[in-house]
Structure formats: C-alpha cells, structure tokens
Design brief:
Strand 6 and strand 7 form a beta hairpin. The protein contains 15 helices and 16 strands. It is of the alpha/beta class. Strands 10-9-8-5-4-3-1-11 form an eight-stranded mixed beta sheet. Bound molecules: FE(8)-S(7) cluster and iron/sulfur cluster.
Length: about 525
C-alpha cells in the first residue's frame, strides 16, 4: 500500500484535517533553518517540526523536499496531450510550460505504455519514488488517460507516490477522483489572482463547451484554481503552487498570489522564471517579453519566504523527464527501448537501496551540523553565494567541465542554504567551442564568489579567477554543505585578518535555451 493518510479512507475527518492544516500553516522555513537548529522539510534529513503524516509524504519526494532532491528521483509519463486553456508563454508544439521549459518535446504514451515505462524505470532506478503526470498538455483536460494511468500504477507499483500538475481549470470537477486514487501531491499553476493581470497572460480558456476570452476568461480561471486548491487541502492532499514570474506583468503581484494560496492551505510555492525566446514561437517570445535575472528571481523568492515554504530547486522538467531533478535520463527509456527491456520490478531490492540512501542522508546532516558548530560566535553579517558542481547525493562529485548545471548555496553565519541552480552549456565538448561556453558559465554564476568542483583544468581555473570567482577543488567528493561551511569559515577568517576584503558580486543570467538530453 502506498503510505498515505488516505489509507483505508478517501477523506480524513474534519478535525484531523484541521490539525494537519494548522501544522502546515505553522510550519515555515523550508530550506531556511540554516544554523537555527530547527529541522525543516527543505534542509534536514530528519522530520524536524513536521507532523508525521506530512513527513511521510515529503521525505522522499524530490520536489516537495529540497533535501530529498539530492537523493531521490521522479519520472513523468506524457499521457495527456490536450489542453483547455492558452498561456502566452506556451507553444503547443512543445510540452506544457507550466512544468516544462519550452523547446523540448516528449514522446506521447498510452496509459498501458506508461505503466510499462514506470516498471522499467523503477527496476533500473531504485531511488525513483514519484510518478508525475505533467503534460504535455493539461492532465485534467485528459482525465480518462490520466486516471487510467494512475489506476494501472496503483496496481503494479504500489510503492510509487502519485503526483499531478494542472492549470486548475478542471480541478474542482476531479478532486474526489484524485483523492480516490491516493494522489498525495497536486501542483496548480497560479500566475495571478487579479483577472486584469490574468488577461495579459491568458488569451482564452475553454470551459463547458464554450471559449471565454479576456478578463472574463481570467476570472473564471482564478475562481476555479482557488476553489480547487481549497477542496484539495480540505482533503489533506499536499498542494504546491507553481507561478511563472513574468517581469512587468505579474512579478510584483506574485506576493499577493503567495498570500492567497497560503491562506488556502498550499504547502509549497514554486516561483519559476519565465523562459522566453523568439525561437520558442510563444506570444511572449515573439513580443520580446523578457524573463527575470537570477537576482530578480531570488529577491522575489526571498520576499515571499517569510509567508510560506518556497521551492527553489525546480528544474522546469519536460513531460517525460526521468531521473534526479538535475539530470535527464529520458533518452534511456524511449518506447522502443522499454518494449525491448526485461523488467524486474522487485520491491525488496528497492527498499534495501532506499534504506542505504537514508543512511547517507543522516551522515550528511550530521557532518553539516558538526561543521556548523565551528561558526558559533561568529558575528559577521556577510552573506554570499557559491556554485557547486554535483551529480547528486549531496556531494561535490562533478568535474567543472562536465557540469550541465551548478547548484547555488547562500552562505552566512547561519550556515549553507540551497537557493537555486543554474543550467549551463557543457564546458568540455571535446575542445570545440570551449571558450564561448566558459563565458556562458561565468555569466550563469557571476553572482557567486566561488565554484566548488571535484576537478578543474588549468585554463578555466585562470579565467574564473580573472572573473573574480574562486575555483575550489580541495573538497572533492565531500559533502556540499559541510564543505561550503568550512570554506566560508576560512573566508571570514581572511576578511577578519585583513588578508582579503569582502566585496559584493553582480547579477547572473538565467539560461533561456532548451536542455537537450545528453544521454
Ligand atoms: Fe513532476 Fe511536478 Fe510532481 Fe515534481 S516535477 S509533477 S511536483 S513529480 Fe518538480 Fe519538475 Fe519543478 Fe515540477 S522539478 S517542474 S516542480
Ligand atoms: Fe500550455 Fe500548459 Fe498553459 Fe496548456 S496549461 S497552454 S499546455 S502552458
């Protein structure tokens, strides 16, 4: 059976729901606890202040727990091609941009093919714990295919958590079915609660055989989204809200959206950057609407963090993504390959592997706590960012030249806090185009003081130093947070002794192109 508060009953008692929702409302600080010692879903392997029912749901969900995303993988199955609204950042040629970057296209599957794929991935990647349906259109505009897939997975792979991402228009009509299939996690993309702003984002919505446009369409959409959110949280289903930050359109308004969704019981808010380029063929791409810079995005996320848990590790995955959030193994699991694969789904092997992962998580947190004690008594108000090359497991275990993304941590006397990631072009491409790609790497991490890597060559090292970014390879294959804290301590010592002078860094660029699977 899937671990769930729905076990044995689709709807928990009102008193129970009230208790759990209060606990969610009281629980803040995903990723913010740093040195406060307060464990949280975002930063510790332990349960901390989370109620057990919530902890069971988030502890190995890579999107709902920042800490879990270093260790656990998710997969999407692209069973839902149709959509019932139009977003100005979407081109239907590609996947639903509410969870995907424009520019990548997924292979569409039948529910039966999807079920086979889930078993194939679960046998190959034992730390894959979550199946999400996120497109390529809207899952609830394709309810038969979506729910048939969930039904099949519930039967064949009961240890896998089910997850759904929707624009919310059809949500109120399906809440009971969602609860009935033990779907514990639902994401709703909510970009506005003001229909005047909504009219700038959505040209039309299609509801009950009728097309609505302008403010009327946006009003209908926001009413249905908020109603759906309330209905889900009343049933104890954990809800994440995705919002696309569109500078000059809804960037300031998203603070209001944050308050509106928090008051309706949302667990997590994920503010994602608009990714927009003319070649995507979207309305925003063609009209030159820009996306935010890295620091604009961080400032908005920081300003909302006092209100509720903020997700900062979203990778805007494609609708057939497979693997850890920072990697894309979808090319290993195409329909042809799956049909030819011998599937050996073994629950005991999966459990044994995941028990090992848990040991690693505990060791990582213990190492961080020990290092954190060295900062006790430090009075500095310096805060700075560092970039990290990692392949997962919370380790500095990637070569600079092989990194397709860098994770970004904010360091202060409170400790190391994950604040985002930056996708980059591979620096090492067999000697071709290296100079150009190094410039794009530097632009992507230009707001960082240092970059932690397992290994780095002499040339990029020198160029990084010239750009004011210190390459750090002395912590190869060690835990990220423990190492970052140790480095920060020595940085503070150097500032205090006058050996170096602390200075602020500039802004950085968010990469606008598509990530093409390298597998
Ligand atoms: Fe997929 Fe979304 Fe479920 Fe995660 S993704 S349906 S909640 S299992 Fe995660 Fe990917 Fe970001 Fe989505 S990183 S795009 S938030
Ligand atoms: Fe595109 Fe998703 Fe918006 Fe539908 S909901 S228009 S698929 S971004």
């Amino acid at each position: 059976m899937q671990a769930s508060i729905h076990e044995g009953t689709a709807v928990p008692s009102a008193a129970k729901v009230g208790e759990v929702m209060q606990a969610i409302a009281d629980h803040k600080g995903c990723g913010t606890s740093g040195g406060s010692g307060k464990a949280s879903c975002g930063s510790a392997a332990g349960q901390g202040d989370l109620p057990t029912e919530i902890w069971e749901k988030v502890k190995n969900h890579p999107c709902y727990s920042e800490e879990a995303h270093h260790h656990y993988a998710r997969m999407h199955v692209a069973v839902a091609p149709a959509c019932n609204i139009q977003c100005n950042y979407c081109n239907r040629k590609y996947d639903c941009a509410n969870e995907s970057r424009p520019g990548v296209v997924s292979e569409k599957l039948t529910p039966e093919q999807a079920a086979k794929k889930v078993l194939a991935v679960a046998s190959t990647i034992p730390q894959m714990t979550v199946l999400g349906i996120a497109g390529p259109g809207d899952p609830l505009a394709n309810p038969e295919k979506t729910f048939k897939t969930f039904e099949l997975i519930n039967k064949t792979a009961p240890d896998i958590k089910l997850c759904l991402s929707t624009n919310g228009l059809a949500l109120p009509d399906h809440v009971d079915t969602i609860a009935g299939f033990n779907v514990d996690h639902v994401t709703i993309t909510i970009n506005m609660v003001d229909p005047e702003i909504g009219a700038k984002i959505y040209p039309w919505v299609f509801w009950k055989h009728k097309r609505y446009t302008g403010v009327e369409a946006a009003k209908l959409l926001t009413d249905r989204q908020l109603q759906g959110l309330e209905m889900l949280t009343e049933r104890g289903i954990l809800c994440k809200v995705n919002s696309v930050m569109i500078p000059g359109v809804n960037d300031k308004h998203l603070v209001e959206v944050n308050k509106a969704v928090k008051s309706r019981g949302a667990f997590l808010h994920n503010i994602m950057p608009l990714i927009s380029a003319p070649e995507h063929g979207t309305v925003f791409g063609l009209t030159g609407q820009r996306g935010p810079t890295a620091q604009e995005l961080k400032a908005l996320q920081d300003s909302c963090e006092g209100e509720m848990n903020m997700m900062r590790h979203c990778r805007q995955c494609r609708a057939d993504a497979v693997g850890l959030l920072g990697e894309d193994r979808s090319a290993e699991f195409t329909t042809d390959k799956i049909m030819a694969m011998e599937v050996n789904y073994d629950l005991d092997t999966r459990k044994a592997y995941q028990a090992k992962v848990e040991e690693e998580r505990v060791a990582k947190v213990a190492a961080k706590q020990e290092e954190l004690s060295t900062l006790a008594g430090e009075m500095s108000d310096i805060k700075l960012l560092v970039a990290v090359a990692t392949k997962g497991s919370g380790l500095i275990n990637e070569h600079f030249g092989h990194a397709k993304e860098f994770q970004v941590y904010e360091l202060s006397t409170s400790g190391a806090k994950f604040v985002g990631h930056r996708r980059v072009d591979l620096y090492c491409q067999g000697g071709f185009g290296d100079e150009e790609s190094l410039e794009t790497v530097i632009r992507a991490i230009n707001d960082c003081h240092a970059v932690f890597v397992a290994k780095i060559g002499g040339c990029p090292k020198a160029d990084l130093l010239t750009a004011g970014i210190e390459p750090v390879d002395q912590f190869a294959h060690e835990f990220i947070e423990k190492s970052a804290i140790a480095w920060f301590k020595s940085y503070l010592d150097k500032v205090n002794s006058g050996e170096i002078e602390h200075s602020e860094r500039g802004d950085a660029e968010i990469r606008q192109g598509a990530l093409i699977s390298a597998a």
